[in-house]
Amino acid sequence: MIVAISISPTAQDDDGSVAASVAEAVQVIRDSGLPNETNAMFTNIEGEWDEVMEVVKQAVFKVAETSPRVGLVLKADVRAGHDTGQMTAKVERLESHLSD
What we know:
By secondary structure, the chain is an alpha+beta fold. The protein contains three helices and four strands; from the N terminus they run E-H-E-E-H-E-H. The N and C termini lie far apart (30 Å).
């Protein structure tokens, strides 16, 4: 499965930034060893259901250490038999259909 998550703390820096809290969540995800990638809006994580959801839980709880409230947006692609390699394979399939 692949999940795309966005974790948003309610606590913020003086300038309105949440980057420090989000970085802590991303570090938990990177330390998990699961395939992942971060872009401007989401972090994608790939693996089996239980291991992915455990990492999501740990990342949310890490942010909750410094914020009284945490929002989580999660989108999942659950496809039997496609547990690994799909973050890149899906993009490759898409690119093969785009004209130059």
